[in-house]
Every structure is written in C-alpha cells, then in structure tokens.
C-alpha cells in the first residue's frame, strides 16, 4: 500500500512539474503592434543545430471582435526558427478561452518555412530565440 502511495505521489509530481516549469516572459512591443500582448516560455526553448524551437503565446486586446470571430482569448504556438536563415514555421496551436480552458488544439497542417518579416512580433521571437539560445552564437 505504501509503495502504491509513493507511486501516485511521484506521478502527480511529474504531471504538475511540467505545468509549473513554464517561465513566461512578456515580450510585448507596442511600437510593433498595439493590439497584441506576447510571451515566450523561456523553459521551452530547445535547439538542434541551427533550428531553435519555442512555445509562445499571444493575446489580442483593444480590438472590437467581429461577431464571426473565433471565441478565444489567446493562443499558444510551437514555433521553430532556422537561425541564420531568418525562417520560421509554426507546427502546433492551442486556443484558450478567458478562463484558461482549451477551446481547440492541434497540429498546423502543411506548415511551411516562411520568412521572418522585419519589425514584427515574429522578429522579436526570432531574435530572442536565435541570439540567446542558438549553440553557434553561444560559442563566441
């Protein structure tokens, strides 16, 4: 019985530790976009060669919603960057409502590499991910 209780506690710890492990850093820049708040999870950043993958989330604010707009408050994305090539690709998306409950989620079909456009939210993410976490940059 004692062993079973320890197993349950260990599994609860594993389950909860991944949720608690997120370290969201706000990277909102109102000079770029006055209608969006943005964050990056610093603990999610992973690199493999020149590819850096992060989880980011955005929230739209100060915008009157169109009646046909989706009913969500913010979205999280799994985004990869090809550092040095200025390319990005989003592979997964999660939409949340105002109570932080998942509205929808899934892989982004036919996700292709796209150019990182200057002076955009994507460039903020690209610079943070590639300049800080790319192993080639760390060797300097």
In brief:
The protein is built from 3 helices and 8 strands. By secondary structure, it is an alpha+beta fold. The termini are far apart.
How many E strands? 8
Radius of gyration: 18 Å
In terms of DSSP E residues, the strand content is 35-45%
Number of helices: 3
Average pLDDT across residues?
76
The major pleated sheet works out as: 8 strands, antiparallel
The appropriate CATH architecture is Beta Barrel
CATH class: Mainly Beta
Shape summary: globular
State the order of secondary-structure elements, H for helix, E for strand: HEEEEEEEEHH
Give structural notes:
The protein has 140 residues and is an alpha+beta fold. It has one domain: Lipocalin, CATH 2.40.128. It is 26% helix and 35% strand. The chain has helices at residues 2-20, 121-133, 135-138; strands spanning 24-26, 36-41, 46-48, 51-60, 74-82, 87-96, 102-107, 114-115. The longest helix has 19 residues, at 2-20. The chain is globular.
Q: Can you lay out the helices and strands and say which pair or pack?
A:
Elements: H1 2-20, E1 24-26, E2 36-41, E3 46-48, E4 51-60, E5 74-82, E6 87-96, E7 102-107, E8 114-115, H2 121-133, H3 135-138
Antiparallel strand pairs: 1-2, 2-4, 3-4, 4-5, 5-6, 6-7, 6-8
List its salient traits.
140 residues, Lipocalin, 35% strand, 8-stranded antiparallel beta sheet, alpha+beta
């Amino acid at each position: 019985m004692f062993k079973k209780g320890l197993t349950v506690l260990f599994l609860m710890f594993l389950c909860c530790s991944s949720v608690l492990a997120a370290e969201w850093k706000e990277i909102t820049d109102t000079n770029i976009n006055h209608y969006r708040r943005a964050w990056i999870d610093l603990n999610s950043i992973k690199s493999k060669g020149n590819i850096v993958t992060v989880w980011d989330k955005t929230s739209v604010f100060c915008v009157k919603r169109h009646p046909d707009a989706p009913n969500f408050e913010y979205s999280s994305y799994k985004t990869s960057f090809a550092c040095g090539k200025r390319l990005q690709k989003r592979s997964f998306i999660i939409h949340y409502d105002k109570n932080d409950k998942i509205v929808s989620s899934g892989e982004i079909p036919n996700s292709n590499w796209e150019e990182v456009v200057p002076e955009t939210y994507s460039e903020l993410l690209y610079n943070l991910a590639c300049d800080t976490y790319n192993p080639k940059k760390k060797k300097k």
